[in-house]
Design a protein that fits this description.
By secondary structure, the chain is of the alpha+beta class. The chain has 2 domains: about 230 residues, 3-Layer(aba) Sandwich (Rossmann fold), CATH 3.40.50; about 120 residues, OB fold (Dihydrolipoamide Acetyltransferase, E2P), CATH 2.40.50. It is built from 8 helices and 20 strands. The two termini are about 35 Å apart.
């Protein structure tokens, strides 16, 4: 059962196609994210789902019923915006009750519904507080409570963490996922931050230039990208350009621009010898020391970047390329300028046509 489905949705603004034939389904009670760079069409797509824009073609269905002819206030979806849009002249209880009053709920039951939803977002007893008295994280939860008290089929979240500082944003990623589980409501979340999408989502759609490049669980997108764009946009990666000089059984030997060669998997890509490609290798796939031919590079330590579990060694290879190597210990025993060999398993390198990246 899908709470939300889009079928071949297209939206144009003059000669520009913002959303180009997008189709997907969001299972009931799941957390689905649309991840893509600014200008890729994700906000336009969400605005069509909410009813603020009308598609030029295709269909949008809630609970398997088309909503194309329904006004925004008639669709059982609610939206949390980046800047939350809480009413500063109302206290917390009045903000949450606003939608209930507009809907015509009986006054006698509104207070109890407000108290119940505040309990569920972990803020009991704050009905009389002013919005200005709340922290950033509390405002986020009130914005969600204001929507969830109306029991929507789908909650739309338009980059709601974008205005928060880094530490609070990291905390709210976990809180949002927990709230989604608690309410068992379908969340559709759009973001340009791949960390947000990977941490919170059951499934992620990677959007580029109005189209979905790939849809799948976060680990699938990370480990098995289907295009150079997905490989480069989802997670950190090393990227080198070159041309295929030999291709055997899905493994290519790629002559790198500037010198050297590496082996890489081609996956389901329709590549051929002499194809211009990009090779991608994750930093955590790279180890110190020599490995097999086609999966070893030599160079010198360029920089040591300490960041706890995300520490990196930057290696400048003999051909001048810079390679990131994950260093989870943060204590490499190397100094800048030291000679170093690095290697990886050949099947951890992927290559894609350069013009598809």
């Amino acid at each position: 059962m899908y709470d939300l489905r889009c079928e071949s949705v297209i939206k144009r603004f003059g000669n520009f196609t913002a959303v180009n034939g997008v189709s997907f389904g969001v299972p009931a009670g799941s957390f689905f994210s649309i991840l893509g760079p600014s200008g890729c069409g994700k906000t336009t797509l969400m605005r069509m789902i909410a009813g603020f824009e009308h598609p030029d073609a295709g269909d949008i269905l809630l609970k398997e019923n088309s909503v194309l002819n329904l006004a925004p206030n008639k669709r059982n979806v609610k939206m949390v915006f980046q800047h939350l849009a809480l009413f500063p002249m109302m206290n917390v209880g009045e903000n949450i009750a606003y939608g209930l009053r507009c809907r015509g709920d009986a006054k006698a039951g509104i207070g109890e519904k407000v108290r119940a939803v505040l309990d569920r977002v972990g803020l009991p007893g704050v009905e009389d507080k002013q919005i200005s008295q709340l922290s950033g994280g509390q405002k986020q939860r009130i914005a969600i409570a204001r929507c969830m008290v109306l029991e929507p089929d789908v909650l739309l979240l338009d980059e709601p963490l974008g205005a928060l500082d880094l530490k609070l944003r990291e905390h709210m990623k976990i809180e949002l996922k927990q709230l989604q589980h608690q309410f068992e409501t379908t969340f559709l979340y759009i973001t340009h931050d791949q960390s947000e999408a990977l941490v919170m989502s059951d499934n992620v759609a990677v959007m580029n230039a109005g189209r979905f490049e790939q849809i799948g669980p976060p680990r699938e997108l990370y480990d098995n990208p289907v295009s150079g764009f997905v490989a480069g946009f989802v997670g950190d990666t090393n990227r080198w350009e070159g041309r295929i000089d030999r291709l055997v059984d899905g493994t290519a030997r790629v002559a790198l621009n500037g010198g050297g060669s590496v082996l890489a998997k081609t996956g389901a890509n329709s590549l051929r010898e002499a194809s211009a490609v990009e090779v991608f290798v994750r930093p955590e796939a790279v180890a110190i020391g020599r490995g097999n031919d086609g999966a070893t590079l030599s160079g010198r330590v360029d920089s040591l970047l300490f960041n706890g579990a995300n520490s990196r060694i930057l290696v400048r290879t003999e051909t001048g390329k810079l390679v990131e190597v994950a260093d989870t210990s943060g204590a490499t025993g190397f100094n800048e300028g030291d000679p170093i060999d690095i290697h990886w398993h050949a099947d951890r390198a992927l290559c894609f046509a350069r013009d598809a990246a």
